[in-house]
Structures are given as structure tokens and as C-alpha cells.
Write a structure and sequence with these properties.
The complex is a heterotrimer. Chain A is an alpha/beta fold. Chain A has two domains: 31-146 and 305-357, D-Maltodextrin-Binding Protein, domain 2 (3-Layer(aba) Sandwich), CATH 3.40.190.10; 149-303 and 372-422, D-Maltodextrin-Binding Protein, domain 2. Chain A has helices at residues 4-19, 47-60, 74-83, 97-104, 122-130, 155-161, 169-181, 198-208, 213-218, 224-227, 229-237, 251-259, 273-279, 318-328, 331-341, 361-365, 383-392, 398-413, 415-428; strands at 35-41, 64-69, 90-93, 142-149, 151-154, 265-266, 285-288, 301-311, 344-345, 369-370. In chain A, strands 1, 2, 3, 4, 8, 9 and 10 form a seven-stranded mixed beta sheet that branches. Chain A has a three-stranded antiparallel beta sheet with strand order 6-5-7. In chain A, helix 2 packs antiparallel against helix 15 (331-341), helix 8 (198-208) packs across helix 11 and helix 18 (398-413) packs across helix 19 (415-428). The longest helix of chain A is centred in the first third of the chain and has 16 residues, at 4-19. Chain A is globular and about 65 Å long. Chain C has helices at 20-27, 31-58, 68-72, 81-90, 92-124, 129-139, 146-159, 165-175, 177-188, 194-201, 206-217, 219-235, 238-244, 252-258, 260-263, 267-287, 289-302. Classes of the chains: A alpha/beta, B mainly alpha, C mainly alpha. Chains in contact: A-B, A-C, B-C. The interface between A and C is medium-sized, with 31 and 24 residues.
């Protein structure tokens, strides 16, 4: 960090010239004698649940005041705050590449001495371990809720027509043909928001490609071109069964269309259910894992950590932050969150799963699950936009162009990481 | 003797008067410019530790397809936009400067887009392109319009362009009108005696007199068009298929959000150099033109 | 004046005989009706999006059907409920207040700081190399894209405790400095030294002379600077977005960006909110249209 000093001294120069003119503009600290804990969580759709949790916490604690922020575009807000070195005490984020990066930047505190860890299902702690670029000692995140992605379907519509839940790729396609023949869209996509392209992509990828494909590519054992060929082929087939020109409609539009019965199925994660129900509260939604394979036994449910908490290293009140986390993991609090957002609790214990996960329950119980592949893609590579570009490309060799580009750009965006991991592995030897 | 002393006091005051502006400018323009240039030699993510990587970011810039595409898009947009804006606003200015009814009202209406915020206008047009235009398209059975142009990789940029031009025309129109008003009438009298046609009058008399305003407008609109951001944020977010990512948008998106602080700083430095170069070229050319006339 | 400054400050046109309008149009007075009609028709392109915004904002979501008629017909009743809801969701009065404070503070700071600098530079740049250098140094800031300053400024403002409205105001004051200093110093070229010399004789200090005589004399330029600066700051999204994100303070346009996801597909609510956000500046424009257009035109001629 020595090099940062030059920057710092330049900044100081600027500070010197301007603070003379303008000081004391920042808001003052509140002086109620309480320890203030700020939590920034990244799910704005869960703001109601968190307001309730915040209120309950503050009502039961005299010495600690909890302040939960749930901004829109939360990751941008969080990263801007990190650039500003204005750290919250606790962050609630997803178990994805951002977690890996923040951890790699040594932003998080080791919380292995927190007793709550023993209540968390080991499978989810393992997912977080797999997200570490370089294996770390200790625990840096507490998985809170998981989600699952596959196909959501309109249960009433299925029952009225006597459609069966498909278990293989062929069954799925023939179901789509049947539905299409009735004049309803089998599927609906909101591809205007590029990130939604990742929902069917991930759901297909967990069934068709190895779970550790990214690290295997990094170590040079394989290529994406080899591993993702089938995923690329199948995601394009889905377009035949969706509304025309899905690139015109956003995630919101797609949720609304599905809620209004404009399609029988919607390939998206369980996280979309609250949004869909807000449009049509009486809708009967159920789900099933994406039948990506010819054999049912090969299918895997796409499930990952939707929300997890980490304590920032910069937090000055680690004990108080622990107290907040203990409260977050009380059964009652977990239930408040689940009632509002659905999802799968990462804590051991008897929680009722929401009914829209019925079709996935067996996979969850059998632990036939695999994490979202995009949780390992660097966000600046914008794989979602690559997929969107590929889907819109109607040339004959579009898949080849796309997969070559995937492999090429991967190397460039992960260059520093690959070098770092190599160096670490050599050090281990 | 007394007078010289006064003058030095006066000089002191002059210097004191420049200092606040100068300090602010150094602190919030020059220093960040230098820091930004420095970050461009690092692999900084915006947080955590970083290393100096020499010229790697600059080398990468020239091989990065996404950056290349953002330059292509931005230039395509700026060139088409500058031409369209200037043609339309010149026509409008000629019209609005003629003897017409409700002149003030009409000028007022045509200037309106300039005072409205780009982001909100973008949202409104986004609805128009997604729902109204396709509905009109299918009502008149015009296949091209039946799909939202914002969803088309080929034509989405035209949607962004329409909104950009819609807003920018107003400002340039006002500038051209002020230009037209500086042209003394006797020049036209001379033209009329010669029996020149209307087009000839415009070409030989009006346009040369208007040249300083044309150059102001060209420089102004090129610069604004090159920095397009709000419209992209509201209309396409760079999509579909990354076809409408402007340079400013890419720097914001990947620099702030994507952990490419260092790399995008290099992009910003190059962008700065490009803007300065273009402005200088434009000035030299228009200066020559003016001198010739 | 050297060639390179010619672009920034064109020589003011002192002789303005009479406008071309009269003579030119005496000849073809019959064309003006056709032209008027054409121009009125052209207004449709300006007014249609606004019409669309207004009717959608007043409609209930149930009135929106999937055809053009559903979106563009007049609402059955002009209900204000969308507006009440939009005000609540976006915390309208708060963000309006912030926008007003930021714009007003920027204007005041600009009028004071930029006019002083413009005056000092304008009076000295023809004789003193230093001032000429400062002039070009500041004016060159016009070509620095915000994109390059953005990321360092986020860090810098935060380190100085300026990641708030004060910081945004300071940044605006810096961003508009090149244009405004150019305008003021250009204007000073037309103001003869006689006034200051007379005041000098009376023994008034230069400082006093400036505030009592010169500053009031620059009134036309103040109007131009105020209008141009206000239009830029009022509608800007990017600066508050990166400097103040994550705080409770938002500006009017930023609120629209932040609540975009909350509007969902309730376009009626969204459009009511857009209309509310546009309204203050439109009202202001209707009231001061002449000054605004005049100010912009003045800036263009001088700039």
C-alpha cells in the first residue's frame, strides 16, 4: 500500500486548499450514548421485512441502535461507499463474485468465533468456501437465505389443461409444443434487462456442465467451448417458445406478463415470486427444476445463497455487530424474512418452505443442488450481455462465435486472478 | 507617485479576486485529473490493495472489443447527431426568424425540450418506443415499427439518437436565431437587386455571415453528443447486446460498478485526449473557413 | 486578439442596423401563413411526448389497455391519486427542496466567484501574461470530460467529508467555471475603464469599486450565467448520483432514477412522478421564458 501514499499526499494537498473554506459541513454524530450499527443489505425488494426486523431489534436493545439501509442499485451504492472508504458495519449481499472480490480485498472480518455458525447448514458454508479465490482460514460470511432457479409455472393453468410436469429435456420441449398449440406462450423472458439472460443459462448450466468449470478453465484443464456447447444450444431453443422479441421487455414486464397469465411458465429464480405476487396476489405458483438432461437422474437444481451477512473489518463495534447477527438468526426473525421473501433458510431447524417451492422440495432435501455458475463470473466481463448478444445473433455459427469470445475474454478479465492463484499454489508446494 | 501606489493596490485586488476560483479549480479539476491519470497505471478495483501495472491498461484498451465498440457507437452517434441537430436547428431558426404569426409562442415551444432533464425525457421516450410506436406500427401494418426499436441491436442507437436530437435542437436553434439577427438587412437589399434566388441568397449571403455561429454550434453539439450518458441510462442501459454503450456509460458502469477502476481510468484519459484533439481540429478548420470568407 | 481566442470571444457586433426580417418579408408576405402552419405542425413533435405524459399520469392503471387508444385517450376522470402516491413514494418535497437548494447555492457561488475572476482576468489578460495563462488554464477545463474526474472525485469528496450537497455545489461551481469565466471576461471587454478610473480618483478601493459599480453593471451577464448554470445543474443526474448515492438526500431527477424499480410496471404512477419532476422547471420557464431564452442567446453570442 506504499504506492497509495503518493495519491494520499496529493489528496491532502487538495484537502488543505479546500477545507480552509469549507469545514464542518458533514452531519454530526448522534449523541444518544448508544452504539450505532449500520447494515447495508442489497435486496431493495425485502425492505419491508428489514424495516420490521430493524424495529424489533431496536425495541429490544437499549444499548445498540440498528440502522438497516436497503437502497436501490445497492451494489453500486456499496461499491461507491467502498471507494469513499465509508464502510457500513455489516453488509448483506449475495454469495457471488462480489463476495469473492470483497473477501480478496480483505474487507471482511473473520467471524469464526461467533456461535451462530453452528446452526447453519454446512452445505451453504461450503458454497461460501468455494467462492474464495484463495483458500482462507476462518469464516467470513453467514449464509441467511438461499434461492432456487428453474421454472416457475402457473399451477391453475397446468391443472386446468392437465399438463404434466416434465422431467427430461424432451418432455419439456413436447410440453412447450402442446402449450404453444393452445395459443398461450409457453415461456416469457424479460431479456431487455440483460441479467435475466443468466436465469435460464444458470439453470441449464448446473445440469449440463461441471460445477467447478470456472476453476478448471483457470487451471487450463478445459475450455468453456467444450463445456458450455450444449448449454448454448439449448438456451437458444427456448426462444422458439417465448413471446416474440423478448429483448423489448424488462424483468418487470415479464413478471407482470406471467402474473397476468400471458405465459404458462417463466424460467427465473424463486426471487421473482414476491414481485409476481405483487401484481396478482391470488396467483397459484409452483416450480420445478430445469429438466436440462435426457435422464431425470442427471438433473440438478440450481440453488445458491441469495443473502448472507459479513462484518466489515473496519467496523469498530464487532461485539455489537455480533449481537445484531445473533438477533438476525433467531428463529422468529428468520421466519419474518421467509414470510416476506420466500426462499430457503440456511439455518438448521423446522421452517416451513413456501408453497411455490413444492416442486423443488425433493431436490432440496436430497441436496441435489449446485451453485449458480455466474457467481464465479467477473461482473465487469458482463457475461449476461454476451449471452444476450448470442441470443440475438441469428447467423449459423453464432454459438461458435459466442463460445470463442467467452474463452478469450475470460482469460483477459481473469488474468490477475489466475496469476494470483498460480502464485498461491506454487507457494503451497 | 501616488498613482503608481494605487495601481499596485489594484493589482493586489485583482490577484485576490482570481484566487478563490483558481483554488477551487486546482482542487476539484486539476488534482482529480492527475489522480485519475495515475490510477490509469494501476489495477485498482476501487477498494482494497492495488499494484502498478505500467502501460498494461492502455495496451488492453486497444485490444478490448467492448471499448472499441463503445467508441464506434459514440462516434456514430455524435456525427449523426451533430449533422442532424445543425440541419434541423438551422431550418427551424430560418423559419422562426421569418415574419410569422405567434412568433414568441412558437419560439417558446421549440425551446422547451432544452429545459427538460435528459433522464426523465429518456424514460418518457422509452415508453413511447416500447409501447406506442409498435402499436402505431401494427395499426398501419408497417413491419419495421412493429417491434420496439430499442430492442433491436441494429436500430436501438437510432432511438437514443432521436431523443438526443430532440433535446439538443432547441439550444442550437436559439444560437442560430441570434446569429440571423446580427445580419444587417442592407445585405439582403443588395441581394434582391441582383435578383438572386432564395437558395442563392441563403448560400451566398446568409450562410457566410452565419459562419461563426455554425462553428460555435458544431463544437458545442459535438462535445455534448460525445458525452452522451443520461439518455443511455434511461433508454437502453447500453443494450441490447452492448450495442448502445457510450464511452461515458462504460466508464461509469465498469469503473464504479464493475471493479475496473484502473482500467476505466485509462479509458477516461484516452477519451479526454480524443475530445481535446477533436475540439482543436474543429477550431482550426472553422477558423480557416472564417478567414477564407 | 490572437487567432485561437477568436472562437471563444467573437468580436461583439456593435452596429446592428435593422433586422433582415422586414425587408425580406415585405417581398414574400404571402409565405408566412404557410410557414406558420408548418411550424405549428412541427410543434406536435415537441408537444406529443408531453401530452402522452400528462394523460398517462392522470389515468388509473385499469384504463391502460394494450392498444394506442388505451394509452393516449383522455383519462375518464382527472384523478390526483397517482400524484399523491408518487409524492409519497419519491419523497417529492424533500427532493424538490434539495434540488432548489443545490441550484440556488450554485448560482450564488457562481455569480460571486466567477464574476470576480472573470473581471480580474478580463481587465488584465491583454497586458499581463500571468492572467492570460490563468484564463487559458481555466477555460481549457471545458474539454475535460466528467468521466475522467468522476472516480477520483468520489474518493476525494469523501475524504474531505464533502460527499453531500455541499460537495455537489462545489463541484458544480468548478464545472461551470470555464464557461462562466469566459462569459464574464468577454463581457468586460465592452466595459470602458472610465468608471473605475473615476472611482479611483475619488479614492475608492478597487475592491469597493468592483462591488458598488462593476458588479451591478454586469447584470445582463449575471442573468445569462444564472440561466445557463441553473439549466445545467437542475437537470444533472450524474454528479449527485456518484457523489451522494446511498445518502438520504436525493435531487429531483435522481429520485426518478432511484425509484424506477419501485414503479415497476405501474406506468401511471411513474409518469405522474415524471410529470411532477418536470413541473417546477416548466412553471419557471413559462414565467421567465423571455429572460431564459434571452440569457441563452446572449451566452451563445458572447461564447
Amino acid at each position: 500500500m506504499n504506492k497509495a501514499k503518493t495519491v494520499k499526499s496529493l489528496l491532502l494537498l487538495a484537502a488543505f486548499s479546500s477545507t480552509l473554506l469549507l469545514q464542518g459541513c458533514a452531519a454530526g454524530e448522534s449523541s444518544d450514548g448508544k452504539i450505532h450499527i449500520t447494515m447495508l443489505q442489497y435486496k431493495p425488494e425485502a425492505v419491508k421485512a428489514f424495516e420490521k426486523i430493524e424495529e424489533r431489534f431496536n425495541a429490544t436493545h437499549d444499548d445498540i441502535h440498528l440502522d438497516i439501509e436497503s437502497p436501490n442499485e445497492a451494489m453500486t451504492v456499496l461499491k461507491t461507499r467502498l471507494i469513499r472508504e465509508d464502510y457500513p458495519d455489516i453488509v448483506g449481499i449475495g454469495g457471488d463474485i462480489n463476495y469473492s472480490n470483497f473477501l480478496d480485498a480483505e474487507l471482511f472480518a473473520d467471524i469464526s468465533d461467533l456461535d451462530v455458525i453452528n446452526d447453519i447448514k454446512p452445505a451453504y458454508l461450503q458454497i461460501d468456501k468455494d467462492l474464495e479465490f484463495i483458500p482462507q482460514e476462518g469464516v467470513y460470511a453467514l449464509p441467511y437465505a438461499a434461492n432456487a432457479a428453474g421454472i416457475l409455472y402457473n399451477k391453475d393453468m397446468f391443472e386446468a389443461n392437465g399438463w404434466e410436469i416434465p422431467e427430461t429435456w424432451d418432455e419439456f420441449l413436447s410440453l412447450c409444443d402442446t402449450i404453444k398449440a393452445t395459443g398461450t406462450n409457453p415461456l416469457y423472458f424479460g431479456y431487455k434487462d440483460t441479467w435475466t439472460c443468466l436465469a435460464p443459462w444458470n439453470a441449464l448450466a448446473v445440469g449440463l456442465a461441471p460445477a467447478d468449470v470456472c476453476s478448471r478453465v483457470n487451471s487450463g484443464d478445459t475450455t468453456f467451448k467444450a463445456e458450455y456447447a450444449e448449454v448454448a444450444e439449448k438456451i437458444k431453443v427456448l426462444l422458439d417458445y417465448a413471446e416474440p422479441n423478448p429483448y423489448a421487455y424488462s424483468y418487470n414486464d415479464a413478471c407482470t406478463a406471467f402474473a397476468r397469465g400471458e405465459s404458462a411458465m417463466y424460467p427465473i429464480g424463486s426471487y421473482a415470486v414476491p414481485q409476481i405476487l405483487s401484481v396478482n396476489p391470488d396467483m397459484n405458483i409452483d416450480s420445478f427444476p430445469f429438466p436440462a438432461n435426457e435422464n431425470e437422474e442427471d438433473n440438478v437444481l440450481n440453488s445458491g445463497i441469495d443473502l448472507q451477512f459479513s462484518v466489515m473489518k473496519e467496523s469498530k463495534n464487532k461485539e455489537a455487530a455480533y449481537e445484531v447477527l445473533r438477533f438476525m438468526f433467531e428463529d422468529e426473525t428468520v421466519q419474518i424474512y421467509l414470510d416476506d421473501q420466500g426462499g430457503i433458510p440456511c439455518k438448521e431447524g423446522e421452517f416451513t418452505l413456501p408453497s411455490f417451492l413444492n416442486g423443488m422440495e425433493q431436490y432440496i432435501k436430497d441436496n441435489r443442488m449446485s451453485d449458480y455458475h455466474d457467481h464465479h463470473y467477473p461482473s465487469e466481463m458482463s457475461v449476461d450481455a454476451l449471452i444476450q448478444t448470442y441470443l440475438m445473433d441469428s447467423s449459423a455459427n453464432s454459438a461458435e462465435i459466442f463460445l470463442d469470445r467467452f474463452d478469450n475474454e475470460w482469460v483477459r478479465y481473469n488474468r490477475d486472478l489466475i496469476a494470483k492463484v498460480k502464485k498461491y499454489e506454487e507457494g503451497q508446494k | 507617485m501616488k498613482k503608481t501606489k494605487k495601481m499596485t493596490d489594484r493589482q493586489k485586488t485583482y490577484i485576490l479576486m482570481v484566487i478563490p476560483a483558481l483554488l477551487l479549480f486546482v482542487a476539484f479539476n486539476t488534482i482529480p485529473l492527475i489522480t485519475g491519470a495515475m490510477y490509469s497505471f494501476t489495477n485498482y478495483r476501487g477498494y482494497g490493495s492495488y499494484e502498478f501495472v505500467g502501460l498494461r491498461n492502455y495496451i488492453d484498451l486497444f485490444s478490448d472489443a467492448r471499448v472499441g465498440n463503445s467508441y464506434l457507437f459514440t462516434f456514430k452517434y455524435a456525427i449523426a447527431g451533430t449533422i442532424l441537430v445543425n440541419l434541423l436547428s438551422l431550418l427551424l431558426a430560418l423559419g422562426l426568424n421569418s415574419k410569422i404569426k405567434c412568433k414568441t409562442l412558437l419560439r417558446g415551444v421549440y425551446f422547451l425540450p432544452n429545459i427538460l432533464g435528459g433522464l426523465i425525457i429518456g424514460y418518457i421516450f422509452s415508453f413511447f418506443f416500447t409501447y406506442i410506436l409498435p402499436a402505431i406500427g401494427s395499426a398501419i401494418h408497417f413491419g419495421f415499427l412493429e417491434n420496439s426499436i430499442l430492442a433491436s441491436e441494429k436500430y436501438a442507437w437510432i432511438g437514443v439518437l432521436i431523443v438526443g436530437v430532440w433535446q439538443a435542437v432547441a439550444m442550437n436553434t436559439i444560437i442560430y436565431i441570434s446569429g440571423l439577427q446580427t445580419i444587417p438587412a442592407d445585405i439582403y437589399e443588395a441581394g434582391m437587386i441582383d435578383g438572386a434566388s432564395r437558395w442563392q441568397t441563403f448560400k451566398d449571403l446568409t450562410l457566410p455571415m452565419l459562419m461563426p455561429f455554425v462553428s460555435t454550434n458544431l463544437i458545442l453539439s459535438t462535445k455534448n453528443m460525445l458525452m452522451v450518458f443520461d439518455q443511455i441510462m434511461a433508454l437502453t442501459k447500453g443494450g441490447p447486446a452492448q450495442s448502445t454503450e457510450s464511452i461515458s456509460y462504460l466508464i461509469y458502469k465498469n469503473g464504479m460498478d464493475g471493479g475496473q477502476f484502473g482500467f476505466q481510468s485509462a479509458n477516461a484519459v484516452v477519451f479526454f485526449v480524443v475530445i481535446v484533439t477533436i475540439s482543436i481540429i474543429q477550431m482550426v478548420i472553422t477558423n480557416k473557413k472564417e478567414e477564407q470568407l | 486578439m490572437s487567432t485561437s481566442t477568436k472562437n471563444f470571444v467573437p468580436e461583439p457586433i456593435k452596429v446592428r442596423v435593422k433586422t433582415a426580417d422586414e425587408i425580406k418579408n415585405d417581398k414574400d408576405s404571402r409565405s408566412n401563413i404557410v410557414l406558420t402552419i408548418l411550424l405549428i405542425l412541427g410543434c406536435v413533435t415537441i408537444l406529443f411526448p408531453l401530452y402522452m405524459t400528462i394523460v398517462i399520469a392522470f389515468k388509473a392503471p385499469s384504463e391502460m389497455t394494450n392498444d394506442i387508444y388505451g394509452a393516449l385517450s383522455l383519462p375518464k376522470s382527472f384523478s390526483l391519486s397517482n400524484f399523491a402516491e408518487a409524492m409519497r413514494v419519491t419523497d417529492f418535497w424533500h427532493s424538490l427542496g434539495n434540488s432548489i437548494i443545490i441550484t440556488a447555492a450554485t448560482i450564488i457561488l457562481s455569480l460571486v466567484i466567477h464574476s470576480m475572476a472573470g473581471y480580474a482576468i478580463g481587465r488584465n489578460m491583454s497586458r499581463k501574461k500571468g492572467f492570460k495563462l490563468i484564463y487559458f488554464y481555466i477555460v481549457s477545463g471545458m474539454f475535460v470530460p466528467f468521466a475522467i474526474l468522476m472516480m477520483p472525485l468520489v474518493k476525494q469528496t469523501a475524504n474531505l467529508g464533502l460527499d453531500n450537497m455541499v460537495g455537489v455545489v462545489i463541484l458544480y461551481t468548478v464545472f461551470y467555471m470555464p464557461m462562466n469565466v469566459m462569459l464574464y471576461s468577454g463581457y468586460m471587454k465592452n466595459v470602458p475603464m472610465a468608471m473605475e478610473e473615476a472611482a479611483d480618483m475619488d479614492g475608492a478601493s478597487a475592491w469597493r469599486t468592483y462591488w458598488t459599480i462593476i458588479f451591478p453593471m454586469m447584470k445582463p451577464m449575471h442573468a445569462t450565467v444564472a440561466v445557463l448554470t441553473a439549466l445545467g445543474t437542475w437537470n444533472d443526474v450524474m454528479t449527485p448520483l456518484v457523489i451522494m448515492s446511498g445518502t438520504d438526500n436525493v435531487t429531483l431527477p435522481l429520485a426518478q432514477l432511484n425509484f424506477q424499480t419501485q414503479f415497476g410496471t405501474n406506468y401511471n404512477l411513474a409518469f405522474a412522478s415524471y410529470l411532477l419532476a418536470l413541473l417546477p422547471i416548466v412553471i419557471f420557464y413559462i414565467l421567465c421564458q423571455k429572460q431564459i431564452i434571452g440569457g441563452v442567446a446572449n451566452g451563445a453570442v458572447k461564447g
